[in-house]
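> example.struct
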């Protein structure tokens, strides 16, 4: 084994969070080593970017076909998959330099292209090198769940990178599982001309309010996504160049055939092979246990992003990287943790932040729930995107606890709600915002105005009775005080006599 390395920081995992942390640490004057077994950038380059490029293409195709609503006729609008592939490749090529090894070298970050494994609480081995760092950060990312279906080991599911490498759009694609990322992709492929079928053992959007899920269910049906809910996968087997999937729904059995299928059953933290037991780190299959400051049970090791238990929101790894760097440099952390936004990239999109309605009721008891439909905003009427609504969850005093939006642009609108929660804004302050006309932001402001107006327009008898009760309580207190003073005065006079 070659000479051991003793850097200030060793980061395990070269995804967006780990890569950014290594660069920022080096820029701050720390010596850093980045360990990554695969490509730098993680899933972002090989899965997330091509997926979103296909989703964007699907939205463009749907917009072109919806031109009749604006008086436009676009006859024969067809998807050219070769040009879609070129666009996807161009997007990846433009962003890939952000995660290049040359960039690490230019910043004096040492990179080791191998898997890292803890051999003790203070050291790891990677690529034949022993690394004893002052601090370690685990940024391992996620890996797909491996299903227990008979025959699954005989076939190879298509991933997003493989889909974009095909010469032509598949005529038919089967997606096993209803993970939101896969649902958005299935919808996009249907809009581009593919037949997509989704097989799921449970319901769609099990963790979302039905009032948010219902518009998306309707949109998936309109776009032709065939969804089989509550099915059992009996067997998957290859048949020549295609695959055959046997399913059962209740007592009925069915066989589906397609050239390609994708696995879409969610992901788990990629912790296998890291030697966490040797490092003295507490964890389970759902992730690593950490303190609020992201420190693990080993005081020299942090964990960030999807490696942390219950921390799988988009953008969490980069946000965590910034927080850990401040801790490493001895700088005070943020006063409170910023709320994480959650987005389902279907059309319409679902975006949420903070507490859901059920969570808020459990935590606070009495709450206020306010809604405003997209159809009541001028911008939505102008652009024919009236499906959806804004939902705000607040305390009785008007403090914003959570927000959820389903509709066009929800993934952008939710950022205002996230900022409002992080800054402790009230519904009254949101209602007072001046926004450009026309804009969808007006839906969020109008929902907040419902609280303000309900307070201003309270029935007169309610205000009067409330004021009367306050006045009576104050008078009772004054009478009791007067009696007490009178009694003290009498005692003082008797004492003088």
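> example.seq
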């Amino acid at each position: 084994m070659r000479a051991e390395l003793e850097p200030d920081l060793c980061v395990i995992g070269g995804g967006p969070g780990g890569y950014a942390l290594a660069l920022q640490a080096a820029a701050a004057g720390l010596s850093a080593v980045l360990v990554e077994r695969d490509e730098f950038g993680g899933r972002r380059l090989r899965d997330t970017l091509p997926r979103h490029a296909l989703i964007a293409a699907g939205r463009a195709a749907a917009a072109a076909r919806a031109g009749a609503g604006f008086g436009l006729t676009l006859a024969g609008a067809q998807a050219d998959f070769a040009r879609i592939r070129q666009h996807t490749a161009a997007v990846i090529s433009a962003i890939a330099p952000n995660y290049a090894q040359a960039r690490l070298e230019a910043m004096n970050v040492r990179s080791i292209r191998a898997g890292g494994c803890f051999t003790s609480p203070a050291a790891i081995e990677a690529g034949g090198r022993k690394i004893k760092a002052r601090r370690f950060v685990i940024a391992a990312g996620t890996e797909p769940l491996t299903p227990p279906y008979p025959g699954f080991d005989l076939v190879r599911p298509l991933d997003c990178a493989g889909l974009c490498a095909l010469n032509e759009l598949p005529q038919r694609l089967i997606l096993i599982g209803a993970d939101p990322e896969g649902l958005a992709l299935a919808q996009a492929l249907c809009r581009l001309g593919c037949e997509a079928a989704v097989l799921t053992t449970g319901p769609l959007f099990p963790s979302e309010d039905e009032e948010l899920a219902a518009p998306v269910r309707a949109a998936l049906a309109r776009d032709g996504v065939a969804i089989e809910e509550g099915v059992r996968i009996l067997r998957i087997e290859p048949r020549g160049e295609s695959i055959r999937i046997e399913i059962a729904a209740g007592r009925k059995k069915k066989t589906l055939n397609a050239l390609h299928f994708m696995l879409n059953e969610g992901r788990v933290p990629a912790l296998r092979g890291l030697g966490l037991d040797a490092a003295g780190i507490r964890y389970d299959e759902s992730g690593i246990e950490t303190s609020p400051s992201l420190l693990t049970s080993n005081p020299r090791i942090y964990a960030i992003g999807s490696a942390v238990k219950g921390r799988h929101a988009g953008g969490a790894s980069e946000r965590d990287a910034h927080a850990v760097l401040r801790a490493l440099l001895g700088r005070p952390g943020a006063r409170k943790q910023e709320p994480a936004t959650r987005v389902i990239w279907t059309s319409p999109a679902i975006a949420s932040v903070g507490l859901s309605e059920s969570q808020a009721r459990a935590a606070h008891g009495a709450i206020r729930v306010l809604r405003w439909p997209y159809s009541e905003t001028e911008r939505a009427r102008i652009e024919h995107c009236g499906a959806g609504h804004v939902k705000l969850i607040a305390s009785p005093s008007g403090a914003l606890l959570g927000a959820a939006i389903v509709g066009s642009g929800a993934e952008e609108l939710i950022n205002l709600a996230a900022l409002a929660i992080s800054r402790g804004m009230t519904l009254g302050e949101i209602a007072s915002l001046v926004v450009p006309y026309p804009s969808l932001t007006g839906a969020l402001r109008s929902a907040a105005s419902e609280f303000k107006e309900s307070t201003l327009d309270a029935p007169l008898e309610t205000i009067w009775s409330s004021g009367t009760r306050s006045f009576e309580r104050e008078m009772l207190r004054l009478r009791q005080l007067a009696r007490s003073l009178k009694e003290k005065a009498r005692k003082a006079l008797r004492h003088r006599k």
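> remarks
The chain is about 40% helix and 25% strand.
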